[in-house]
């Protein structure tokens, strides 16, 4: 099964070189016929199968060419063309061999409408298709042990070069020639030694080692690599070709990825710039914190000093978010770490005469930066408010941060076991700056809902519960 999965993952090459549809026929467990297990259409020609046939069943003796390939273990090309939906189709069947046993059959169907005198490119493609066909029937393809990501490999149409067992180029498609001309070659490729050409065009630091590239380009090993110089970048895949059990050269697929690599470098540069910006913003905020803290220490104890100390904490909560963003590769914040740092920092400095412990229940997960920054300020204000006003002087207390994600919404609550809300508390009528900041951030900045109430609504006493609910995408969402 693993062999068949690997074959199907890589048989687009055979379909494109053959200009034909491929169908993998798997033998029925009871020996009564074959099931269509996979299907592939060519990107280089017209399909012969207008409908998907995966899952179809063909009884024994209904399709003699499939029976013959499976029974005799040989490529079957006999028989007249078939007519399907008014389309003449030439059918060939290829045994799939594994460890000496035929385990499946590939049916190769060529649409004969529009068949004309083949060009040199088409003849070269068909010759390489015959090489792969023989390798499949002998159990030499797919390449044993190859674990590369074939979904990103170059395709036949991207560029193709055929070498002999000595590494000499016997054929190069127009796209293959164009790819090497991007690297800097000026003449033709055919007849040249591809190993020597590659070594001359690509500096050593930007090409695979000579011990790796030479066996690949001469067909002794399979390999994927990238060639790069100052002019271009090429993605390369070499497939060893065998004939009668002997190495006969290599099929080299090429893709020009110059523009892709340029954009990747630009993206990496922008990501690094953004992280540096966050780092500098964090440093600047910490400088402002230090200046405000220095100013507060020069003031007498009173409202002015308390106001400066509150400003220091508010700026610190924003700095924590920017510090996290400066270490990330995108604009997403792992907010659990931010929340834990904030609750510990605020509780420790909120009141030197009280012992206030905090804990978090639940997980924030990843939050976008536009949500994380105002939410950090909201948590700072709520935890600070609970630590300063929920407990009497020299009392100990406990503050719990509960968080839950429900789909695209975030629900959190800050609970304390203190004295509870003052009599007649009205969120809209309060003059508290901290509460006003929270209300503005939650409702205007985050597009959420804020509410205050008793921790235990049934009894009305035993602490305070502040609930916040926000959409994770911000107000627009």
TrEMBL record:
Any single GO BP term: phosphorelay signal transduction system
Domain of life: Bacteria
GO MF assignments: ATP binding; protein histidine kinase activity
Keywords from the UniProt entry: ATP-binding, Kinase, Nucleotide-binding, Phosphoprotein, Transferase, Two-component regulatory system
Catalytic activity: ATP + protein L-histidine = ADP + protein N-phospho-L-histidine
EC number(s) stated in the UniProt entry for this protein: 2.7.13.3
UniProt enzyme class: transferase
Record protein name field: histidine kinase
Organism of derivation: Mumia zhuanghuii
